[in-house]
């Protein structure tokens, strides 16, 4: 769908506040606008609100205490939404302990609903109101904070991961290429000085000339970052590296000024080089981790139209017909109008087995035609395409944080200050208690500053999350909420919807009972259901067409609890379950009740002008992998529960066939959320997961601790829940559990390693054992700690 947005509308409204415009999604009548208006007026800081159903626009006058996040929650709580857009602001570099500071500052900007930092990509992901602010304005605000913004992008750029990662990688490489030969020469000079070949005077002059560009060019990225952090009252790895390296450098300058023959420590500037080597290795490995996500979005840059013209994919519009030959990638989402062929959809669903597609079948941009020839009519392009939506969800999930990350962030916020304190204490202890010379005390202090590694601690959780999200996406499992990773291994109860989840969701008419003995039941039911896209409606319509019956379109349709009521040629037709029968003021005649009793399929009753015509029975086949999932749940101590809107007979039949002991029947979509809430309350420990079709089960998926939606493979945007299974395969739940368990183990190891590393090496660097670790060697240990955490996180690529 294309959204035509008006220009930014922000204006002052007297002394009371300022007026902001929002586009509301989901309104269709005056009562909707009143509901949204009331919800908005209840939000703190909203002075007044006027909502128009005609323009779908809300004009809100806000005061000092206004919070956009609260406004969004209030609107969503009454069943509507506020239109938002996302911007990806790429930074040249971003350290782990800067994330919280940047998120807080960015979230306070006008027009911003939420800001999230993606440490793996050096990006700030901003969700904003396009009627209030533009992405370039947000980027300027970040620049004013002292951040080096290199790009502002939207999610429809498939190669954004690679571009963002390479920017930082190239910057490190450039600085490293200067530092490496200079450091090598510095070490050669130091060795010659140690051997007596080079005198102190000449070595000091050479050392000064070699160390200065290392310190102030190659090390500028650390010094700049330190200045940014200290200006905002924070301390990070840059501060530690800068203080450690500069203390040794300026100590050497001081000694050199006193005497040209003094013993200096210019070789300690190698701190910069060794840490750059570590950062380069770390950045390259992380770039490799992003490469799998980049490949998800990689496709043809051009599309060939049926008239022979070749145009950029971004210029293809819905309705255009494009040609795809064997061996080529499908450039856009669309429907096959001509031809057929074998298509590799592994980039989308993770399924390696090719599938055959023909006329009328949907295809997704990014898949590959192995053989055949296709003419595809484009349906979705650009940011509305499946792949763009998929990449958007993956990036959002990668930047989300686990509850444990908040604790780590809190610790990291004080960590660097604690290290600086320890370094000062080390200096004082060695200088005034141990009575050593100033140069020796400074070297101990510098080693403490350099050996500590807040980066390893800061990367422990987000890097594992980023890699596991990418791995999951490559398997066709889209995790929208990172908390699902933390909760999934502790799930004790899994509630599964029946229709479309445990069954294929493609019912067929198996029996028809018509009181009059004709086909009126099918004819009227099919006519009433033409306005519905429900699988049951499709089955009834298909049966009517098979019988050659005339299907009329209703003049109006009302959705009621358990079915629909339609007006057709002046007749009132009601179609649905027993609730509809009772709602129409009828009782089932004994003969009809006797015929319905014992039927194991889904029963749909048909009422014409207050008269019961009969019922239609539909059967839905159970998914072949459903039994495998249920058996696996039991073996792993997870209790399966089935819930359905069907009557008890069909529900009991499916539950019995799958071996599910507990099930709930006759539960309407609106009631499923309440049921999930009650089941959660009954749990003494652990979490509850809900598996459903993502549309009818939205309330239940949102209420569960982990909501798992069965994806359609082509309509990802309408799915609900924390996890979307792109491939409609219940075995993906088993894979999800495996990845979640591996990820949490990985995170715990990273955190434990980071704490143990710092606890062991900081006292050692302080000289507790009487051993002096030179700052340049301490820097090697610091670099290795981050590399170790990165390597451990990358193991999840094979989970």
TrEMBL record:
Cellular component terms (Gene Ontology): endomembrane system; membrane
Subcellular location(s) of the protein: Endomembrane system
InterPro entries: ATPase_P-typ_cyto_dom_N, ATPase_P-typ_P_site, ATPase_P-typ_TM_dom_sf, ATPase_P-typ_transduc_dom_A_sf, ATPase_P-type_domA, HAD-like_sf, HAD_sf, HMA_dom
Keywords, sorted A to Z: ATP-binding, Membrane, Metal-binding, Nucleotide-binding, Translocase, Transmembrane, Transmembrane helix
Primary subcellular site in the record, as a coarse category: membrane
Pfam families: E1-E2_ATPase, HMA, Hydrolase
Transmembrane segments: 176-196, 202-223, 235-257, 263-281, 411-433, 439-461, 751-771, 777-794
Topology class, membrane: Multi-pass membrane protein
Family: Belongs to the cation transport ATPase (P-type) (TC 3.A.3) family. Type IB subfamily.
Protein name: Copper-translocating P-type ATPase
Organism annotation: Thermocladium modestius
